[in-house]
Write a structure and sequence with these properties.
The chain is an alpha/beta fold. The protein has a single domain, classed as Aldolase class I (TIM Barrel), CATH 3.20.20.70. Helix content is 36%, strand content 19%. An 8-stranded parallel β-sheet has the order 1-8-7-6-5-4-3-2. It starts with 8 loop residues before the first strand and ends with a helix. Belongs to the ribulose-phosphate 3-epimerase family. It comes from Phyllotreta striolata. This is Ribulose-phosphate 3-epimerase.
């Protein structure tokens, strides 16, 4: 997703929607201005929650052939799911470095060989120093702003220095934030330098999704121009 200029992209987390109506809810988000769909995949191991896997993604892809799908793989063994998620139609495969810290480069290479883009995610307790040597292998860096595995958590403001460091050192990197991001916390994310915004409850539960997405975008774009000059 990297280009010569940073672009704001809003990716609602579909996990917060009515999963019995996943296609309709996903299409509604796209119709209301979402740039991509953020699909949270949890294995009940790396995180204590369990969500959906590649069969559900594949069904959704058949209904929505052209949208950009990101799989956020909160799983213990990210390598295991590269091929199934690629076959299901994922565009960006974002995995956590923590369970495979000695194997990150190899996993990145396998993802790229499959044709998907690579995202690297870090939990709140993981420092930039653990990520630093892998950044050049990624298309996107995801900084978690809550502990992964549960929705509805409070936004962790003290994660913003990670975003600031990444933006300062990698001016054109796609930097994503995920967790507790909404109208009250978007300014902190934007000013720190995040340009890919994952938002769940704030968008899904809104009576006017388009207005919330537009407001998030406006806040981010007002900060992005500083990086693009």
């Amino acid at each position: 997703m990297m280009e010569n200029k940073l672009k704001c992209r809003i990716g609602p987390s579909v996990l917060n929607s009515d999963l019995s109506q996943l296609y309709a809810e996903s299409q509604k988000l796209l119709d209301n201005g979402a740039d991509y769909l953020h699909l949270d995949v949890m294995d009940g191991n790396f995180v204590p929650n369990l969500t959906f896997g590649h069969p559900v993604v594949k069904c959704l892809r058949k209904k929505i052939p052209n949208a950009f799908f990101e799989a956020h793989m909160m799983v213990q063994n990210p390598e295991q799911w590269i091929e199934p998620m690629n076959n299901a139609g994922i565009n960006l495969y974002t995995f956590h470095i923590e369970p495979v810290i000695t194997d990150v480069i190899r996993v990145c290479r396998k993802i790229k060989e499959s044709g998907m883009k690579v995202g690297l995610a870090i939990k709140p307790g993981t420092g930039i120093e653990d990520l630093r040597c892998y950044i050049d292998h990624a298309d996107v860096i995801l900084v978690m702003t809550v502990e992964p595995g549960f929705g509805g958590q409070k936004f962790l403001q003290d994660m913003m220095p990670k975003v600031q460091w990444l933006r300062h050192n990698y001016p054109l990197l796609d930097i994503e934030v995920d967790g507790g991001v909404g109208l009250n916390t978007i300014t902190a994310c934007a000013e720190a330098g995040a340009n890919m915004i994952v938002s769940g409850t704030a968008i899904i539960d809104s009576i006017d999704q388009a207005a919330v997405i537009a407001s998030l975008r406006e806040t981010v774009e007002s900060s992005i121009h500083k990086c693009n000059v």
